Amino acid sequence: MPPFTLEQVARIKRSIVPRETTEGVSTSAPLPSYPIPDPKNVQGDVYTAFSKGDEDFIFFTLADRSRFKQWLANFNPTSSFDVAQDLKRILTSSLGDRSRVKVVQTQIAFSRTGLDNLGENGKVGDFYFDKGKMFLDKKELTDRGKWDELFEAGPHVCIIVAADSRSNCHEKVREIQGQISGFVSNLSIIHGRERPGRFRGHEHFGYLDGISQPALRGLTDCDKVPEFMWRDPGVIIMGYKGDPNFDGKDPVTYPPRPEWTKDGSLMVFRKLEQDVPEFNTYVVSNGKRWREFIPEEGKGGQVQLTDLEGAKLFGAQMFGRWKSGAPLQLFPIKDNEQAGKDPNINNQFDYRVPGKTKPSAAKCPFTAHVRKVNPRQLDPFLSREFIDATSIIRSSIPYGSELTEAEKVSGKSSSDPSLKRGLLFVCYQSSIQNGFMEQTKGFAGNDFFPSVDLLPRRVGQDPIIGAPPLPASVTLTISGMDGREDIDMLAEGRLKDTAFSLRGTEQEFFVTSRGGEYFFVPSISELKRLARL
Questions:
Q1: Cβ(60)–Cβ(176) under 8 Å?
Q2: Beta-carbon neighbour count of residue 26 at 10 Å?
Q3: Which of 39, 251, 386, 455 is most deeply buried (CB count within 10 A of its CB)?
Q4: What is the dihedral of CA 466, 471, 475, 477, to 10 degrees?
Q5: Residue 448 lies in a domain
Q6: pLDDT by residue (tens digit) across 79-96?
Q7: Cβ(188)–Cβ(517) below 8 Å
C-alpha cells in the first residue's frame, strides 16, 4: 500500500480531527452545554471512521454461545479515542515514515438475531433493526438483484478488521479466525481494499468518495467545518441530544431505549455491485448530447465541449461532483482537479442561485446523487431540523478488482465471479428509519424528492443508488417539518416499470445490491455486559 499522505488523510477526514477526550481540550470548536459521548467508550468506526487501506468484514453465526461469550469477555475493540491516537501518529510522522506506521483496528457488531442468541432480547428501539433481518425489507428497498446466500440467511455477528496494509489486515483476521473457529459457523469474509495509486479514495466509477461527512458537536475539533455540517451527537450515537428516542418528541414512533444501548450505534452494511464498463459506455454514449444538458451559462455558443468533455459533464451531473471531487455547483461545466483536492473547497455545496427565490437546478440537477442523499438549502419546503435528523456517517470501501483489458474493450462486465467489483457500503446512525431508510427510500428512491414547491414535482430517481419502482401500485410520500408538526404530501398511482428522467434520455442503473444487514454496535462497556449474560 502507498504511504499515508496528508492529502489522503485530509480527503478522508475533511481536515476534521476527532477529539481524543472531552476534558482539558483547548479548541476553537467549544464543547456544547449538554452531555456528550465518551470517545473511549464508543467503538472506533462509528464516527471517527477507521483509517484504512484494507478492510475485511468477518460474518458468522453463533454455534456455541457460552464459548463465544468467554472469547468476547477478552476481546478489546478499537475505540474512537484509539482512532484519534492512530490518526495523530500518522499526521505527526514524517512523510517518509508514514508507510511504516502500522495501523490495525477492530470493531464488533451484532444483528437482531445475534443479540437474541446471546440472550439479550430487549428491543433497541428501532423499528427496522428490531423487526429482524434486512432481507425482510428487500422489496421496500426495491432490490431486484439476487442476494448472496450469506445475507439471505442472516449473520449473527460482524467483526471489522481495518489496517494500513493487506498483510497486516490478513494477519489480524487469521488471528481472530483461529480464536473463534471452534464455536462459530457459516463464517464468511468479504475483502475490501482501497483502489491503487491515483485512484485511491475513489470508488469504482471513478468519483472521489468518503468526503462531505457530518461533524458531531463536542466530538470534533476543527474550525473549518461549514456551519451546515454540524450535527448533535445523538443523530449518530444513541443516548444523547439528537437521538429521536432520547429527545422524546414522539414516544410511539421512537420509544425510550434501554440503558445498555447508550454510546452504541446502528450500522447498516450493504454489498453494492457496480457494472463499471456499462456505466462508462452509458456516459460516453451521452457525451455527444452535451448541448442538451449543459447549464444555461454555457449555452448560446459561449462554451464548446468535445464529446469526451460532454461525457465527463454527463457523469458529473449524475453524481453532483466531478471525479476529482470538485463540486458541480461551483464548477458546472468543467472539472477543477485542484479544487477537488482541497478539503476547504470540495465540501462547498451552496445550491442557492442569485436571483432565484426557490431551490434551483441551474448548475446541479436535483437528481444528482450528492444532492439527493445529502439535501441542503431546501427552506421552507424542508426544515434544517428534518434534514439534520437524516444524517449518517459513511465508512465504505471498494471491493473487487480493477477493470480488465477485455472489459474495457467490450464495454461489458465479466461473468467471472472473481472479477466482480463494487462498494462495501457502511453507515452509522442512531435511527435506521431516520437515516439509512430515509436517505434510500425517502430521498434517493423518491421521484418527487427534493421538495422544491408546495405541490409535488417529479424530478426523478437518484441515478446512482436509485432504481425503477417495482411493478406495483406505489405511494410516494414527501415529508417535511415546519418546526411544529409533520407535513405529508401524497401522490398515489401506478408508475411504469421504468425510471423517470428529466435529462432527455431513459435513466439506466448500474448498481445492484447483493444483500446486507442491520447491526447494533454496542459501546465497549456494553460488550463486557453481553459477555456476562
A1: no
A2: 5
A3: 39
A4: 0
A5: no
A6: 999 998 888 887 777 555
A7: no
